[in-house]
Amino acid sequence: MSDTGNFIHQNPSSNFANLPYGQTFFHKPTGRCSNGLLMIDYITNFFNLPFLDPYLNKNDGNFSHGVNFAVAGATALSCSTLAKKGIEFCPANSSLLVQLDWFNPILIPFAPLHQFARFHNDKLQVVLGEVRKDHPKVTIVYADYYSSLTEILQNATSLGFDTEVMQTACCANCGSKGVAACEHPYKHINWDQVHLTQHTYQLITRWLIEHNFGVLTSTF
């Protein structure tokens, strides 16, 4: 929901680097795991900022207004740590700690964020409080993804989704040779069996902004 291209810089042969990923907005694959824009894109739009280039696009990226460290499929713990626990599936070897290593030299030391890998969701608010206290000049917002998606599911019809197909993938096996997307992606919540459609990300972002900032966002 956040990676704007880091994963395909590490894995250029990935299906994410092929159409129909990106077909709705960019008309080409950008590394975003959807048919178009992601939540992070709508957030930058809300703040009147350009889209964020991925950190690994060091040759052509413009980082003057911000940078995106997210990697699709990345885990909080490293692949080696997961393997020791008997978990072999690890699609991206750029764990949260790796992303924080990228983050630290560019911005400010942010050590308390390392605690994210050790806390469950019910402890997240406590950790955020500690980070806010240590870095009062940094704005950190808790995004309740679960509640936003739940509300979308409860109001799916009025939001333009087709209840008969909305939870089926618009583009199963997306990015594979010869695979086409469905005709109307905006009627689907699910894009590729894992990620969501641009329409869904737009609605989630609108909900998050309205509930965190108290601002109506009918403009996107």
Can you describe what's shown?
The chain has 220 residues and is mostly helical. The chain has a domain at 6-110. Helices cover 30% and strands 0% of the residues. The protein is built from seven helices and no strands. It has helices at 6-10, 39-46, 79-84, 96-106, 124-134, 145-154, 198-213. The radius of gyration is 18 Å and the shape is globular. The two termini are 17 Å apart. Mean pLDDT is 87; it is low at 113-120.
In short:
Helix content is 30%, strand content 0%. The protein has 220 residues and is an all-alpha fold.
Q: Estimate the helix proportion, in percent.
A: 25-40%
* Beta-strand content estimate: under 5%
Main pleated-sheet profile: none
Number of helices: 7
Q: What is the chain-wise order of helices and strands? A: HHHHHHH
- How would you sum up the global shape? globular
Number of strands: 0
What does the average pLDDT come to?
87
Topology, please?
Elements: H1 6-10, H2 39-46, H3 79-84, H4 96-106, H5 124-134, H6 145-154, H7 198-213
Keywords:
7 helices; mainly alpha
